[in-house]
Amino acid sequence: MTTSRGIRTSNGRLLVPTLLFIALVVAVVGSLGAPLITSVAGEFSVSLATAQWTLTAPLLVGAIATPVLGRLGAGPRRRQVTLATLAVVVAGSFLAVVPPSFGWLLAGRAAQGTGLGLTALMMGVARDHLPAARSGPAIALLSVASTVGIGVGYPLAGLLTDMAGLRAAYGLGLLITTVALAAAWWSVPQPPTGRSAPVDVPGAVLLGSGLVALLLAIGETTTWTDHPVFGAALLVVAAILIGTWARRERRCTAPLVDLALLRSPAVAGANAVMLLGGIGMYLLLTLVTRYVQTPDSTGYGFGVDVFVAGLVLVPFSVLGFVGGKLVRPLSVRLSPATVLALGGTAVLVALLVFALSRSQLWHSFAVMGVLGLGVGAFSAAMPAAILSVTPAEETSSAMSFNQVVRSVGFSIGSALGGLTLAAHTPADSTFPTDTGFTTASWIGAAAMGITVVAALTLRQAPDSTTTGPADLPEQITQPGQHDPRDRVVGDIRGNQQDRR
User: Fold this and answer.
1) Fold held by 12-191
2) CA dihedral in degrees (78, 80, 82, 86; nearest 10)?
């Protein structure tokens, strides 16, 4: 039996847990590469730089898959796209467990990366098939889960590697992705009828190629230290390809991403804030995990193993979800932009504390907790800032673009941290000086300071309280189908009543 909104009534209560589980799974699988790089290098007799591709490859594939899946998710086959993508992730997870060679492992990790584009689809499902009172909080939790879920995969992977070896850690990915596929088949409903979402294939190729060039340039720190001219050339190529894509999208009848949405100051500003905030957040995340694993023989660091380094991320995940839950009561009195600024301020405080005090291991745990609190609030407030002026049928597309922006911000943050530490590494040493961590922290603090100021300026941009039905595109509504504009107008009226 199905309801008028397309959910099987027997499984409707499982929808939100399923969506959150899928978002967590793709975040955990994506993070499996980070703690296992050293083990991969030893297992397959490759260099650390080569083993690094087990982390880079899924991120690259995910950046390309995200906008494509977002467009497909706006059409009538969202359920089929979700199941097919999870099937690809399961196949990739199997290859990662039983690879006959490093090449097969890399192929499996790349296939796992397609799952990183599913979070935006899950947001579209939540907005289409949940009551207005539940869809907003669910979308906020999905945004939080896709970020702080990183902290779940790291310690589990480290523990399994220490106990049973590399293949056991990748076996975790196979188990949870298989369960996610079964849960999606059972609970994810068909989208509302009357939609179509043709994919602009040339546009997808242009955007994908541009993102690959951009993420290679900013994500591979050795490119700038060993081949700076090649790194600069990659940035130029990326700018040309993405610029050509943007020009095509404005003229295309079925764009991959509706760039017209970026004309809204709220949407454009929120994506800019996401880019800047992503830089500071991921920079600190990588600094702390690297700092605690540095041998104390260098004069700093604690020389902890992979498992303990993963435990440092537990406060990040726990308080990340706490921060996400705080957004709803805060939003009763504060605008999404103000909540974004508060989240960014918490991240800024974490960066300042790490820059000034990190002599004890518990300092790192505390810093990661404050970081998680800020990231959770920031991530949960971001969808509200964007979706308040986005039609329901464009939810997947709009949020997929935001996810791509976040990936670029994370890559820039990672690259900035790596380049700064490389610049402070003596020629005869493997590890950077302690000053390098301090300098990198201040760079991150500067990025987050700008983020907070930019978020506060969004309060001057039109938000949901100034958006009415006339601002939303017309579309044909089938008999018995809920008009997406009704959902947005209901959200608007609810927000106005809350603020009164």
Assistant:
1) Growth Hormone; Chain: A; (1.20.1250)
2) -170
